[in-house]
UniProtKB/TrEMBL annotation:
UniProt-listed Enzyme Commission number(s): 6.3.2.1
Extra information: The reaction proceeds by a bi uni uni bi ping pong mechanism.
Protein name (record): Pantothenate synthetase
Keywords, ordered alphabetically: ATP-binding, Cytoplasm, Ligase, Nucleotide-binding, Pantothenate biosynthesis
Length: 283
């Protein structure tokens, strides 16, 4: 059954007040639509952990640092609703823009430190846009649980810190990356790759795997990262924003694998910015 699509905050509030009155636990899965199996895996986790599930669909203009990227972002609401139908979610909240940013909206939620490197260094203002909209979605849904994918690993860390710092009573659940058979991490941006670029795209994941293997074998981190960058460029990517080893919790740069870590990458292929990451544990 297709879930009701709510456009107005008042309608969302009415629905969630009813659920809360019945003592039900509510989960939210925030998305910008163009849903794929990665999003649907978040919905499955949300359904397992809560009585009610809201999927939000809102292409948030404040988190785009590039007007062209915003214009090209796929908008596929009818398809998204059809993809969600088998999961029987309780509501799709696809707010009208003024429900999120009413006239005169003047507030920015900003997390320092964690947002400064990696994607934050290459996408000015991006994380302020993310934390502002996610704070709004938490306030609007008043969800008990929120599910985010680990593909946006820095985003997950930033949202966790925001919720902790602002005492927002929501449990943030990170969910594993879902990949295509050839290793490419699922992303709403993948549909913008030409067939030739789509065939090249798994190079990014393979380079991360090779770097992880090399670091595990004792190759110095800097050398393994440089080799990964060379492999990505040789594999057809136009440029690499970063390939870096970071502590999994604080995201501080590591030059030795001495704690749980994450190897993170962002690179450009065929005019599309792809990101990926994988976890590493010290021996
Ligand atoms: O990961 C996303 O799709 C977006 O950054 C999010 C969390 C829905 C906020 O707009």
């Amino acid at each position: 059954m297709t879930a009701p699509i709510l456009r107005r905050l008042a309608d969302l509030r009415e629905m969630t007040a009813r659920w809360r009155g019945q003592g039900q636990r509510v989960a939210v899965v925030p998305t910008m639509g163009a849903l794929h199996a990665g999003h649907l895996s978040l919905v499955e986790v949300a359904k397992a952990r809560a009585d009610r599930v809201i999927v939000t669909i809102f292409v948030n203009p404040r988190q785009f640092d590039n007007a062209d990227d915003l214009a090209k972002y796929p908008r596929t609401e009818q398809d998204d609703a059809a993809k969600l139908a088998p999961y029987a979610v309780d509501a799709i909240y696809a707010p009208d823009p003024d429900q999120v940013y009413p006239p005169g909206f003047a507030t920015t939620v900003s997390v320092a430190g964690l947002t400064e490197g990696l994607c934050g260094a290459h996408r000015p203002g991006h994380f302020d846009g993310v934390t502002t909209v996610v704070a709004k979605l938490f306030a609007q849904t008043q969800a008990d649980i929120a599910c985010f994918g680990e593909k946006d690993f820095q985003q997950l860390a930033v949202v966790r810190r925001m919720a902790r710092d602002l005492d927002i009573p929501v449990e943030i659940v990170g969910c594993p990356i879902v990949r295509e058979g050839d290793g490419l991490a699922l992303s709403s941006r993948n549909v913008r790759l030409s067939p030739a670029a789509r065939a090249q795209a798994p190079v990014l994941y393979r380079a991360l795997q090779q770097a992880a293997g090399a670091i595990g074998d004792g190759v110095p981190v800097a050398q393994a990262l440089a080799a990964a960058r060379d492999a990505v460029l040789a594999g057809g990517f136009a440029s690499v924003d970063y390939i870096d080893l970071r502590a999994a919790d604080s995201l501080v740069p590591l030059d030795v694998l001495d704690r749980p870590a994450r190897l993170l990458a962002a690179a450009h292929l065929d005019g599309v910015r792809l990101i990926d990451n994988l976890g590493l544990a010290p021996a």
